[in-house]
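Exercise 7.
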Amino acid sequence: MGFALRSGNDRLKAELQTYSARTLSREIRKIHGITQDRFSVEPINFWGLAGFAITAAYFVDVTPLLAGLATEALYLAVVPASPFYRRLVQRREKERARKLRDSQREAVIKGFDPREREAVEYLRWMKNQIYSNYKKFTTSKEVPPNILSLDQRWEDFVDLLDVYRRRKHHLRSINRQAVQNQLKQAEHSIQNSTDDRARRVQQANAEILRRRVAAFNDLERSVRLVEGQLQSIENFFGLVNDQVVTLPTPERVSALHFEELSDSIAMTRQMLEETADTFGMLDNQTRELDLLLSSGSSGK
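Solution. The predicted structure, written as tokens, is:
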């Protein structure tokens, strides 16, 4: 009889523990759905909830479970609304976003060819050397914010290099001379055609080819602009390093016009955004041209 009673109590405790865990988890998810934008399970919060659940299971009593849910509700009503906690969450989100960007950028770097990776790693090494040399020659424990902005400039270099290589490869995949020859042939056919239907087809063909040449020219200009911007970033890193090694005073370092480089990069990025649709435009024009020529051939 005593063994059976103990077995029954054990089963009751196990069922209550399972019930407590499920109920607690369900209630947390319910509350979390309401306050998802401002709720985060802190370690102390999690272990506190677990303690209430274990206590309820041990004493075979739902009172600690209800107390835990009440405490959790109070926690959600007070803590997430506090300015300190909001700042803490914002810092965590920024740090999480930064780590995500860093991991994505490192993945992009792994896709570069050896020569491109060498340029990226050399610039990273030079950036760290600048920080080290500044502390060494100025006996300062902190690097000023304008020099620390080289972190962002290095990230800009990687991003722009990725854009440069993709656009460069796209340009190499297009036979510009062949497109120009097709345009000359289309214009010649327009002048010598005696059939109205054939002339209209060639006129549409010539218009598409002109747009392709214009889009190609836009891409070519953007590649030259990005190439110049990459060179300016590399040269600026060298200039800062020379200044830090020779005359590492805050006044001379501040006179290196960090803002001008930042403004130049922002202008380049804006131009790249304006020409971002050119890739798709070239592909669409190629499909339009093939469709037009095929319909012209079937019409004959």
